[in-house]
Amino acid sequence: MRPLRAGLVGAGFIGPWHVDALRRLGTVEVVALAGSDDARARERARELAIPRAYGDWRALVADPGVDVVHIAAPNHLHHAVALGAIAHGKHVICDKPLADTVEQARELLAAARAAGVFHAVTFNYRGNPLVQQARVAIAAGRIGAPHLVHGHYLQDWLLREDDWSWRLEPGQGGAALALADIGSHWCDLAEHVSGLRIVQVLADPATVVPRRRKPARAAGTFAAAGNEEDAQWVEMAREDLATVLLRFDNGARGALTVGQVCAGHKNDLALEVCAAAGSMKWRQEAQNELWIGHRDRANEVLQKDPALLSPEARPYARLPGGHQEAWSDAFCNLMRDLYAAIARWDEDRGGLPPTVATFEDALRVQCVVEAMLASAAGGGAWTRVDVAAQPERNTA
Questions:
Q1: Domains of the chain, CATH where assigned
Q2: What are the strands of the beta sheet with 146-154, ordered from one edge?
Q3: CA atoms within 13 A on the CB side of 89
Q4: β 28-34/4-9 pair status
Q5: Measured by CB atoms within 10 angstroms of the end CB, which terminus of the chain is less buried, N or C?
Q6: pLDDT, the chain, mean
Q7: pTM here?
Q8: Kind and range of the H or E element at 253?
């Protein structure tokens, strides 16, 4: 079989990591890149050694030499690019969030199903070996029935008033900021690891930095106005901090704090599941360790070591014990599973690896975030996650 051929739309912060992961697989060719204009696309394609460059994503999704479209563009483009790729019969791998609204996400799921193409969203923390270890252990009942799922996702890159990003631009990031950008990751991971579903939320978002200085020049994902005299002051309307209470479908309670204004927290995702016979906690910034809590004996810290992991989690640990694995390794694990699923898509569409989050999963997370926004708009009222029109997710 010839290698699958990938095309990348968007080459800012996350796009090159798609390319890195695909090249590590050795079975995928990255053949095309689409940027915001011809000059930018050619420059980035040259830097990443990608043979074809397009200044318009429409040309890339129409390219007959592209089998899989990777969407790493700003959020507001996800819906249009994914629809265009699906219309040309391409498989689609999209960064989160899938779309700006629940309605758009539902439209994309329906379109992908009707076209019969593979569809996935990069909730990449699923690719960590100790995340899979925790998921398998909890599903097997090793710590009993969960009654509390809590944690946080904290960053500090928007702490100052001169911090800027395209994510802050009106119309580019959707109705939510921190809740959609990093809260979506946490919510997917919480459901993935615990095996539970979030059914009600009570959200209290806040805008800690109400005015920001926007640089005169185009800003990437992480940027700052610095001392620019022509920077413009812009009023902020979306949340950069939020606390959320949660209720799960088995009656368990939960609590989540998300914030991008928390000094010293660079990419601090933490998730703990407390259950009848024990607890398990994983932190992204110490991702080679899984804390296991007990009542009647000493607590444990399980180190990432293939020899110590369950058979289901072992394949995600690519290096021997003592050899640290990191964010990019988990991202590569996810791409490995995605392309394994694509390779057998025409023959077997039911048995997806557990790391694969489909448009169904992404739609569910979109429903959760929308419920949080509705809760806040209602003055902090408990709000049900509306999944009435959303089908069952992949539970492989």
A1: 4-117 (3.40.50.720), 127-324+358-377 (3.30.360.10)
A2: 300-303, 289-293, 278-283, 268-275, 146-154, 253-259, 241-248, 198-206, 383-384
A3: 4
A4: parallel
A5: N
A6: 94
A7: 0.94
A8: strand 253-259
Contacts 24+ apart (CB under 8 A), 226-231: 226/162, 231/162
Asked whether 362 and 121 are in contact (CB, 8 A), the reply is: yes
User: What are the tens digits of pLDDT across the range 244-299?
Assistant: 999 999 999 999 999 999 999 999 999 999 999 999 999 999 999 999 999 999 99
Residue 396 pLDDT greater than 60, yes or no: no
Band of the pLDDT at 11, cuts 50, 70, 90?
confident
The one-character DSSP state at 80 is H
- CA–CA separation, 215 vs 201, rounded Å? 36
- Segment 192-211 shows an average pLDDT of 98
Tens digits of residue pLDDT in 353-362: 999 999 999 9
Write the pLDDT tens digit of every residue in 157-189.
999 999 999 889 877 878 999 999 999 999 999
Angle at 342 between CA 338 and CA 344, to 5 degrees: 125
Q: Is 31 helix (H, G, I), strand (E, B) or coil?
A: strand
Judge contact between 353 and 341, C-beta under 8 A. yes
Instruction: Extract the tokens encoding 267.
Output: 């990419």
Identify the residue whose tokens are 């000094």.
263
| Nearest-angstrom CA–CA distance, 60 and 81 | 10
Whose CA is closest to 365, among 188, 108, 194, 247? Answer: 188
Side-chain half-sphere exposure of 357, counting CA atoms within 13 A = 28
Kindly report the backbone phi and psi dihedral angles of residue 12, in degrees, each rounded to the nearest multiple of 5, phi listed first: -80, -125
Q: Which of 352, 349, 360 is nearest to 105 (CA)?
A: 360
Q: Are 193 and 271 in contact (CB under 8 A)?
A: yes
- CA-CA distances (angstroms) from residue 275 to 15, 197, 257, 341? 38, 15, 20, 33
User: What's the rounded Cα separation, in Å, for the pair 43 and 122?
Assistant: 25
For 165, the token pair is 């990003």
**Residue showing tokens 């999704």:** 61
Report the C-alpha gap between 213 and 225 in whole angstroms: 6
